[in-house]
Amino acid sequence: MYADDGICQETLLWSVVAVCAAKMKLLRRKKRRALWCKQWLSRRHLKGSFNQIFMELQVENPRPRKLLTKIEPYICKQDTSFRDSISPGARLMVEIGEPSALERSVTGCPVALTGHASLSCNLKIEPTQQHAVHTASQNGCTNTDYCTVDCSGCKDVWTRLPDPSNCKQYYLCNRDQLFTRQPFKCAFGHVFDAENKTCVLGHFCMAPCDRIERCHFLCYPDSHHYLIADRVDCTTYHVCNGISTQPVGTRKCSVSKPYFNGAFCQEDLTKCCNCQPYCSARDLGSAVLNPLDCRKFYECWVVGLPFFVSSCTPGNHFNASTGTCNAETTCQITCPNKASARVILVDGNCGDKVTVDPCAVPSDGSKECADCTGFDQVPNPVDCNSYYLCSAAAFFMPDPFPCPDGDIFDEDELVCKPDGKCTPACNQPDGRDCFYSCEGNPAGMIADPFDCSVYHECTVTDPGPAETCPSDKPYFDGKKCGVDESACCHCRPYCYNGDAGLKVEDPTDCRKYFVCTADNEVPSVQSECKDNEHFDQHARECSSTAPCVTLCRNVVDKDGCIDPYTCQEAGYFPVCKSKCLQDYYHCREVSDDYAQTETCSDDLVFNPDTLQCTKNETCPYHKSLPH
């Protein structure tokens, strides 16, 4: 029995040794294979690292690592014993982000010769893309414009460039050559980060090129483009109503942000819509000139704004007539950049200071430039941060020029300077003295959005404690307390930081909204929803399912009138508090709905004081009967 026990123990011992030896051999084998799998992965069914990686992608991971994958026939690694048996189309290049020093000290994971962690470390993998490419650091790439697809100067084997028109796609550069004209898509639920050149988790994004799909020149029914550009004048834009093919209004950009880029007014001249290249139907398959650089041209593959830019060889310029580059062509820049457009402002020698009429809206400059014989700068009566340029006795340009950031146009020296002396001739119209954010008025005061008697003083970008106007001057107009209720700053539409190009609600009427052309200002471009629709303040669009939310009820406008009117008690109420009109509001019950107007009979008018229809002659206010 003891002999049998000894034999059993010896057999068991040899079995353990055999198992351990096999395990050690397997571990050594796995270690060698791990390094190979770092470089190339075979596409095997239910086996191999390819399957292992995509199994890991399906597991929720709180600390992901980067994985960039793409089946790619391009060969750039040195040969291995496994490589010949795998077809190029089944090879998979991967990159796993290098672990931090802390992670290496904790896990003891080795780092492969390539500088990246080995697969044997069991690092989790971030589900960022379905495709994989080699490191795309974009070293050496000379193109920094997200509005073009240009591989010039790229030295890496693979470089990712954002798709200008789609924030969930990207293009591949093979060194300095575009690999394919078809973009690659990020995985579902991911967007392309143009700065880091990788897909990241996310759903909402904007196209990397802020000019794409912005420059429209025609109104289309049921279109979301409510603002269209002017083909000639970059400081002018037109308003569409989403119904008609014709604009319903024309607007000018403000003096501080004078250039319209297709969505809102801003300061960069080069983003004007008339500075954008454009491919018409007849240009397809050919090329058009880059309006900012005569040494470059755009290839036209679609109608609209082109994306693919190419450069002429050194010493050549692009000929827009022939569509080719040659040395004989004279450089033609159809849209000068901001610096060259302002170089003429350096010299000016008008002798006398020019004065302008208070609050006058300059037209041709005949009054403002009357005493000038050459180029001279004169004050803007409504804005201390800009000025007009005179050429002889007329404006050189119809629009004012902005001073550099932080400068004020000095009314005595007639130059922009940080400590310039300026006393504006009048306040800006249309509520432009009203601010709700200190970021738009850091040295002034801001109004309370809903209470006309409350205001705050700004300390840089932070509002101070609430202050209340005195009872004898209860209404704050943006600068001071007064007695004019129609000058109140409360309940105005307002464009905060980041609202430029977006829609904001009309706080007094749920059926209307405003389009922001700049940040930190009271917008002036108003539009109205279709019948039976209300403006959705969260989606920032009109909707037939959105409830009517009126933030401010029965607000007196600058004309002293109330429209719309909400019945907060039963009775008769005037449309205007200081006018005798034939129309009035009749509230039969308290309601959140907007009241309809009724009309006095015959030639009678509604007296706001007595709340009755009376003869026009007895009305104490301005007679407003139609002629």
From TrEMBL:
Chitin-binding type-2 domain ranges (all copies): 148-207, 276-333, 366-424, 492-550
Coiled coil spans: none
SUPFAM superfamilies hit by this protein: Invertebrate chitin-binding proteins
Cellular-component GO terms for this entry: extracellular region
GO MF term set: chitin binding
Top-rank taxon: Eukaryota
InterPro entries: Chitin-bd_dom (IPR002557), Chitin-bd_dom_sf (IPR036508)
Pfam families in the cross-refs: CBM_14
Listed name of the protein: Chitin-binding type-2 domain-containing protein
Organism in which the protein naturally occurs: Scylla paramamosain (Mud crab)
